[in-house]
Amino acid sequence: MADVMQEPLSEELSNMTVGTPTVIVDDLHIVYKVYGASAKKGNAANALSRLVRRQGRPEMKEVHAVRGVSFVANHGEAIGIIGRNGSGKSTLLRAIAGLLPAHKGAVYTNGQPSLLGVNAALMKELTGERNIVLGCYAMGMSPTETREKYDEIVDFSGIGDFIQFPMSTYSSGMGARLRFAISSAKTHDVLLIDEALATGDREFKKKSKDRIMQMRESAGTVFLVAHNLDVIEETCNRVIWLHKGKIKMEGDPQEVLGAYNRV
Amino acid sequence: MSQPESAVADAQAGGRAQESLAALAERYGLRRAIARPSLPAYLRQLWQRRHFIVTYATSKTVSNYSQSALGQLWQVLTPLLNAAVYWLIFGVILAQSKSIHNYPAFLITGVMVFTFTQRTVTGGAKSISSNLSLIRALHFPRATLPLAYAIQELQVLGWSMAVLIVLVLGTGEPISWLWLLIPVALVFQFVFNLGASLFMARVGAFVRDVSQLLPFILRTWLYASGVFYMITERTKGLPSALRWALEFNPAAAYIEFMRDLLIYQRFPERWAWVTCIFWAVFAAIGGFWYFWRAEERYGRG
């Protein structure tokens, strides 16, 4: 599959200046605060002594997760974001989705980018059927749209009769499949995917790759964070390598992935 | 930008069009991602999410009870047990009941009505702080969460009211035409609860210690609301301002209103109507406005 796709991708890459921008990230800095990161023991006496010494919340630490990232994403692009754990990939996605405020710089978008992250709305004690409805409503779909998409979601997830059982009985792969099926049922202008494809068997991975290509073709932009580099190589036409919150390298997937693998 | 590692990005962006990224964004009509919608737009968005609100509320109820053996039977058992405990303590052990007509009904009505407000406010206070992952993953008007918690409590209330009416009938009160006004009283109270829970949702989202403190505040409120005693009787001989303050307290007003309908079979006085409606309107508008003002800040930092 990879071989088939490389051709049109590199061609598209060279034509990139023609597409209209959908997401512009301009010198973005993200700083967030972490509570409870103290090395001290967190007992009541310590808390009291802090209050007495007027130290407020000393366990609060600032994490400078993204340090000056700039790029332009265009219609029909699929951009892979790679980097080690803690390099700011997920933070960057959240900032693009408008879920984290910029400390400095800005994110400009066309329409509402959405994070493929419906899992937070789902409840594991409920059946798959109920969760499909709940998830679709959570993404802002109407009851009619939900009914129309319902069968497609069940088919795509491929979990068969398990749809009538609570999600707590699912294997992790089945859960991931259902979540991906639900969240990709809605059409997004800009879609941000964070490690959704990490689990699932071979067949499902292929299906989800097709789905991502489909979304790209419907004139959207897809961002993909994954540790599984095969997925990125096969679906993305551009790769951004983040290292310690900065862009270390950006460009053609094979080039960037090649450099990344050499480190 | 001085970091050499970002030079690639700069070159890419700069070489692509000889203009700043901000100007490029403007040329293509791209906007900054974070912005709070206007109040009418916000209300429209909320209305579009009504199916999510109701489904989320029902699902949460199902999910909460799925672990217990008796399941949703607890929706009936909880108010029954509550009423039994309070009746045992205040009706039998502390024997409040002598001067009050039909004390069991008096007490149970007070407990049920207060519990409705108490549970909604508690739910509201944790609605944002316990759903941070949802807030950080999806875009939706954040007020859907306190609203969903309020709807969930409304569903619980349905069962409490059924229990309450059976118990009141059991204590020998006759059915009256005035009972047709019960839904009206509950609508007033529900609107008040909604406003109060929206207010507490914002407070609870930013002041984390509220969840520790809230039970004490609510218990004080419970004792001040004439659930176990009659305010007029207890404040005899005290300054009338105190009595006025206690009776103007929204919880006391809703409790008295319900007792008028259920037990005393009298049409609530005009001041009772005014108080109940005032609190509903005031809380709903104030709470909603206060919540909306921080819309873009929930789940951040």
From TrEMBL, chain A:
Residues 46-263 form the ABC transporter domain. The lineage of its organism: Bacteria, Bacillati, Actinomycetota, Actinomycetes, Streptosporangiales. Keywords: ATP-binding, Nucleotide-binding, Transport. Belongs to the ABC transporter superfamily. PANTHER family: TEICHOIC ACIDS EXPORT ATP-BINDING PROTEIN TAGH (PTHR46743:SF2). InterPro entries: AAA+_ATPase (IPR003593), ABC_transporter-like_ATP-bd (IPR003439), ABC_transpr_TagH-like (IPR015860), Bact_Polysacc_Export_ATP-bd (IPR050683), P-loop_NTPase (IPR027417). This is ABC transporter ATP-binding protein. SMART domains: AAA. GO terms for molecular function: ABC-type transporter activity; ATP binding; ATP hydrolysis activity. It comes from Planotetraspora silvatica. It holds the Pfam family ABC_tran. GO terms for cellular component: membrane.
From TrEMBL, chain B:
It is a multi-pass membrane protein. GO terms for cellular component: plasma membrane. It holds the Pfam family ABC2_membrane. The chain crosses the membrane at residues 76-97, 103-122, 143-170, 176-201, 271-292. InterPro entries: ABC2_TM, ABC2_TM_bact-type. Keywords: Cell inner membrane, Cell membrane, Membrane, Transmembrane, Transmembrane helix, Transport. Residues 70-294 form the ABC transmembrane type-2 domain. The keyword Cell membrane applies. GO terms for biological process: lipopolysaccharide transport. GO terms for molecular function: ABC-type transporter activity. Its main location: membrane. PROSITE patterns: ABC_TM2. It is found in: Cell inner membrane; Cell membrane. Belongs to the ABC-2 integral membrane protein family. This is Transport permease protein. It comes from Planotetraspora silvatica.
